[in-house]
From TrEMBL:
Keyword hit for Nucleotide-binding: no
Protein name as catalogued: NPCBM-associated, NEW3 domain of alpha-galactosidase
Compositional bias per record (Basic and acidic residues), positions renumbered to this chain: 352-361, 440-457
Biased composition (Gly residues): 459-468
DNA repair recorded as keyword: no
Membrane-crossing residue ranges in chain numbering: 415-435
Domain of life according to the entry: Archaea
Biased composition (Low complexity): 341-351
Region (Disordered): 336-368, 439-468
InterPro entries: Ig-like_fold (IPR013783)
Keywords: Membrane, Transmembrane, Transmembrane helix
Length: 468
């Protein structure tokens, strides 16, 4: 009986000690007699987006045995989240009854801004809550709850560059689009397409649509086409409507529409051929063999070894439409001697006579004549084209190789003058010889006619003497 009483007394003593300790702990706010539960019940959007706000819904619930008052809830943002101007990060609840269920909890909303350069991932945010027990001004409860917010990288693509600004008419040319994922999340199932509303520029060998299955953040991809512009199109700047679609994180399709400019038309080409030569003047046929018109065309014979231009070395022939041609003439003399050697202006008389002697000898190794064509293209830019015309040269004369006209002398002006003098002297000499022969013949005839008369006169004299 005594043992039982002693045991009972000991147990009761321990119970009183525990109750005393519990009261002391309760006064420090460290037991659940006054306890708060803080939870993140909703995040909008479900994943925060870089450069966009995110809204947090927080529930505050008193599950303790004591009523609470002056509840203060503060959100402490850290990178990549920050305060939005005009939005409070601290909110208050005046009173919370004890032993609340979920329906009685206080609901608070906070807004934060997500940094535009935030990377995809999960980030921690602390929510601090303070409260006082009702009926006690000194017992303050403080609870810090750490929550996690998901950041979804921004899905965005950009068509950074197009590889060229112009294409030629009726000519197959490559066209490349460089697409870059400028967001923070990978892109998938991308589709790029483009269209010229006027139908001048069209793809060849494929349609205008290309597919990209996956593009990581920060990566670029090149999409290539072969395109051609209508040969009958007017030169000018044409618009390309470019569309880029892709799937976002929630498999929703997004579209990015943009425009680009592409100039159609530009440079052209020429064919230059020998036309004819006459007395040191050569004529060149210049044809526009390209697909674009050439404006303000100028044809020139530049300074070069083997040829000398007297007079103007260039001529303006005006505009040449595609397929048109014109004739440009120049006074050009060959300074190339026999065998392709070049003679100087001060050639000695002996060398000149040697050249005259070999005037009918053709120089097979002569240099081609260089011709320069300048014109303004459809973009308004001045373009220079260099051409060469292969000629066969004789001493001071020029003909197109294999295309010499029968009987065409083509002599230079100096040699022509010299030849004229020789012909005149020959003609004068021949005339003088004929004249002298004619006089000699007439003299002989006169002598023959006088002999009989002299004989008659002699006999008459004699007879007359006899009569005397």
């Amino acid at each position: 009986m005594k043992k039982f009483s002693l045991l009972k007394i000991l147990l009761l003593y321990l119970v009183f000690i525990c109750l005393g300790a519990g009261t002391a702990l309760a006064s420090n706010g460290n037991i659940q007699s006054s306890f708060l539960e803080v939870d993140l019940t909703k995040q909008n959007p479900d994943a925060a987006r870089p450069g966009e706000p995110v809204e947090l819904t927080v529930s505050i619930q008193n599950v303790g045995n004591a009523d609470l008052k002056d509840i203060v809830v503060t959100v402490n943002p850290k990178y990549p989240f920050s305060k939005i101007s005009g939005e409070d990060l601290t909110k208050k609840v005046s009173y919370l009854n004890a032993r609340q269920d979920d329906d009685d909890a206080a609901v608070l909303k906070f807004k934060l801004m997500t940094d535009a350069n935030a990377s995809e991932g999960t980030y921690d945010i602390d929510i601090t809550t303070t409260a006082k027990e009702s009926g006690s001004s000194s017992n303050v409860i403080t609870i810090t709850k750490t929550i996690q917010l998901e950041v979804r990288g921004k899905e965005y693509a950009q068509i950074v560059t197009i590889n060229k600004a112009s294409i030629d008419l009726a000519k197959e040319e490559p066209l490349e689009f460089i697409i870059t994922n400028t967001g923070n999340s990978p892109l998938k199932n991308m589709v790029i397409s483009w269209k010229d509303p006027k139908g001048v520029i069209l793809p060849v060998y494929s349609d205008n649509t290309k597919y990209i299955k996956y593009l990581a953040a920060g990566d670029s991809v090149t999409v290539s086409y072969s395109v051609m512009a209508d040969v009958n199109a007017d030169p000018g700047l044409y618009t390309l409507n470019v569309n880029l679609s892709f799937e976002d994180y929630n498999s929703n399709e997004k579209n990015i529409a943009t425009t680009a400019g592409l100039f159609v038309g530009g440079e052209t080409d020429f064919d230059v051929s020998f036309s004819e030569s006459d007395q040191g003047e050569i004529s060149l046929s210049v044809a526009n063999v390209g697909n674009n018109m050439a404006y303000s065309v100028k044809v020139s014979v530049p300074d070069q070894n083997g040829y000398r231009v007297s007079g103007s070395s260039s001529t303006i022939v005006g505009n040449l439409e595609k397929g048109d041609y014109t004739i440009a003439s120049f006074n050009v003399a060959s300074t190339q001697g026999v065998g392709g050697t070049e003679s100087s202006a001060g050639t000695s008389g002996e060398a000149a006579r040697a050249r005259e002697k070999d005037e009918n000898v053709t120089s097979k190794g002569s240099n081609p004549l260089k011709v320069q064509i300048e014109y303004t293209d459809a973009r308004g830019e001045r373009v220079t084209v260099d051409k060469e015309v292969k000629l066969e040269t004789t001493a001071g004369s020029m003909t197109a190789q294999g295309r010499a006209r029968p009987g065409a002398a083509g002599n230079s002006s100096g040699f022509s003058s010299y030849l004229v003098y020789i012909v005149l002297i020959a003609v004068a000499g021949a005339g003088l010889i004929i004249y002298r022969k004619k006089r000699q013949t007439e003299g002989e005839k006169q002598s023959e006619n006088k002999k009989p008369e002299d004989q008659k006169h002699g006999s008459g004299t004699g007879s007359g003497t006899i009569r005397d």
